[in-house]
Write a structure and sequence with these properties.
There is one protein chain. The chain has 19 helices and 23 strands. It is an alpha+beta fold. It has six domains: 124 residues, Rossmann fold; 146 residues, Topoisomerase I, domain 2 (Orthogonal Bundle), CATH 1.10.460.10; 130 residues, Topoisomerase I, domain 3; 116 residues, Topoisomerase I, domain 4; 39 residues, no CATH class; 46 residues, no CATH class. The strands form six sheets. It has a six-stranded antiparallel barrel. Strands 2-1-5-6 form a four-stranded parallel beta sheet, with helices on both faces. A four-stranded antiparallel beta sheet has the order 16-17-18-19. The longest helix has 28 residues.
Length: 656
């Protein structure tokens, strides 16, 4: 009997359906060894040697694996193909005392053909990949376990700092500061209502006396109205009429970051939820491996897609397949293929999985099929209308488009606004029916949501496919950020304090470029170009020296965390202060420890302009758990106990 070890019981069950007799498939339930909790677990004096232990929760299963492995004729390690999976395989080999060169197989999808091919070509454990993962784990442990106590001493207990989470927090805090400092500018748009050959259309002012009118070209109501009045009195004709064919190309198939972004934008899922659902789809054999930054596609998959398109939609939609893509990401290192359905002939209507899994599969299937289809084609028309006014000369521009061929949009529905214009030629007369002015103000940059934060992290080269969801979870769980009613990140006061402190005293730790350079060093280790211990030493030595210096330089500033109030202490009469605790703000007597009086701070609940769908009497309000997680409940609580993690207003409009 051959023993095959994978990470999860679901994956083991799916594999068992393909391998049958002669194989015993067991699960490691993730890592079987890790750095200890509560202590550093890294011997800095011995070239950062990690001190791995078997966690208590893994001990029973590991003992069972040892018994089975001792009786097996061969042990095959079949953990995931990324660095994390390679590290798990190495830890298993060490913990089970397997032969020096144990059998290791990898596959990108859990299908019979993929498993059979993997078994035909087993390989050795890639120690370079293991070292890259080990270096990441150790550096993250050093930063977290060395920097967090500094925050406890200089700010307050219970805080944490992390190599990547602190950069993500800084992005959110910096964006919030931009928004606060933003000063809106007034500007006006001028739009003519035009008519020719019995057809009405609109044209936007783009030129005045030969000069281009940009967004802030008209900044007062008076100027806008003077222009509008002059255009109304002017004589208009077609200055130019241009028609040209435009194409819209399909997007490449999903990688981890783009799947998480669309999971957020299109389905309203958190990045964590998207990855949990994708993991289930992968382990049950429905999609390929979901942690990847590669847009490559196997030839078998593009051939199957072409066959489906030919059978279902005809030659017009299948003729360009196969289409292949090149990734733009700086990170594309980890896996071998994009996220796609394992069988394109299993469409969204055919798959038998629970609702949210089905919705995510629908997204993955359509994105993959669209990637193999022709471009959508449009005819774009641009009419420039010349208006000779009494005081000036103007150009009003009208644009329109008509779809000629839907192409990939046949399976990837998008909002397409078709707009037809009258068929005019240069010199044709046009009548100005009216001219309207509209006031606008420039807007600050938008707060980050999960999709835009992941996109920024990816563009900066920070993190890897497996880290985006944990990063976002950590900064919320620590109470550093919360989500507003539009599901955008808002830094809590304590998040701003921590970020500003780290930015001032540990600029390298939160520097975007420096963090991206560290990621590139991990890649070099994975490619066998860098020694992992030397890389850690080069990072740790200046970091530790600066940390020692800051312990003496930085003084704890109570004013940073305590705000005075006019509320008198019930017990001793002192004026109470607002403090930050693990679960948010509270009022406390400044006479502590002699006086230990505290009070909760009552906040007026934020409403979302919607009646409770359960009692139809109370308003839905935004509430938060003790850990800062946002949920939505009825304002009549406890009379009505309606509550939902999802915004019920958004839930109504989510695509089915």
């Amino acid at each position: 009997m051959k023993l095959v070890i994978v990470e999860s019981p679901t994956k083991a069950k799916t594999l068992g359906g393909f391998l049958g007799k002669g194989y015993d498939i067991e699960s490691s339930y993730g890592h079987v060894r890790d750095l200890p909790k509560g202590t550093l677990g890294v011997d800095i004096e011995k070239r950062f040697e990690p001190k791995y232990i078997v966690p208590r929760k893994a001990q029973k299963n590991l003992n069972n694996l040892k018994k089975i492995a001792s009786k097996a004729e061969e042990v095959i390690l079949a953990t995931d193909e990324d660095r994390e999976g390679e590290a798990i395989a190495w830890h298993l080999a060490e913990a089970l005392s397997l032969p020096k060169d144990p059998q290791r197989i990898v596959f990108h999808e859990i299908t019979r053909s993929a498993i059979e091919k993997a078994l035909e070509k087993p390989r050795s454990i890639n120690k370079d990949l293991v070292d890259a993962q080990q270096a990441r784990r150790i550096i993250d442990r050093l930063v977290g376990y060395k920097l967090s106590p500094f925050l406890w001493k200089k700010v307050r207990g219970g805080l944490s700092a992390g190599r990547v989470q602190s950069v993500a927090l800084k992005l959110i805090v910096d964006r919030e500061n931009e928004i606060k400092e933003f000063k809106p500018q007034e500007y006006w748009s001028v739009q003519g209502l035009l008519e020719s050959r019995g057809e009405k259309f609109e044209g936007e002012l783009v030129k005045r006396d030969g000069d281009k009118v940009d967004k802030l070209g008209v900044t007062s109501a008076r100027d806008a109205q003077l222009i509008a009045n002059d255009i109304k009195k002017g004589k208009a004709s077609v200055f130019s009429a241009i028609k040209k064919e435009m194409v819209r190309r399909p997007l490449p198939p999903y990688i981890t970051s783009t799947l998480q972004q669309d999971g957020s934008r299109k389905l309203g899922f958190s990045s964590k939820k998207t990855m949990v659902l994708a993991q289930k789809l992968y382990e049950n054999g429905h999609i390929t491996y979901m942690r990847t930054d590669s847009v490559n596609l196997a030839k078998e998959s593009t051939s199957a897609a072409k066959k489906w398109l030919l059978e279902k939609l005809g030659d017009r939609y299948s003729g360009v397949a196969p289409r292949f893509y090149k990734g733009k990401s700086k990170l594309a290192q980890e896996a071998h293929e994009a996220i796609r359905p394992t069988d394109p002939f299993v469409g969204p209507e055919d798959i038998k999985v629970p609702g949210d899994e089905s919705r995510l599969y629908n997204l993955i299937w359509r994105r993959f099929m669209a990637s193999q289809m022709p471009d959508a084609k449009f005819e774009a028309t641009t009419l420039d209308i010349k208006v000779d006014g009494i005081k000036g000369k103007y150009i009003l521009r009208a644009t329109g488009s008509t779809m000629l061929f839907d192409g990939f949009l046949n399976v990837w529905p998008s909002k397409i606004e078709e707009k037809t214009l009258p068929g005019l030629d240069k010199g044709d007369e046009v009548k100005v029916l009216d001219c309207l002015t509209n006031q606008h103000f420039t807007e600050p940059p938008a707060r980050y949501n999960e999709a835009s934060l992941i996109k920024s992290l990816e563009e900066y080269g920070i993190g890897r496919p497996s880290t985006y969801a944990p990063i976002i979870s950590v900064i919320q769980d620590r109470g550093y950020v919360i989500k507003d009613q539009n599901r955008r990140f808002v830094p809590e006061e304590i998040g701003g304090i921590v970020s500003n402190l780290l930015s001032k005293h540990f600029p390298q730790v939160v520097d975007v470029s420096f963090t991206a350079d560290i990621e590139e060093k991990f890649d070099e280790i994975a490619n066998g170009l860098e020694n992992w211990q030397e890389m850690i030493e080069n990072f740790y030595k200046p970091f530790a020296e600066n940390l020692d210096k800051k312990y003496s330089e930085v003084k704890k500033d109570k004013a940073m965390l305590e705000q005075p109030t006019d509320v008198e202490c019930d017990k001793c009469g002192r004026k109470m202060v607002i403090k930050h605790g693990r679960f948010g703000k509270f009022m406390a007597c400044p006479g502590f420890p002699e006086c230990k009086n505290t009070k909760n701070i009552k906040h007026e609940a934020e409403k979302i302009d919607m009646q409770c769908p359960e009692c139809h009497e109370g308003d839905i309000v935004v509430r938060r758990t003790k850990k800062g997680r946002t949920f939505y409940g009825c304002g009549r609580y406890p009379d009505c106990k309606y509550a939902s993690w999802k915004n019920p207003k958004e839930e109504e409009s989510l695509p089915k």
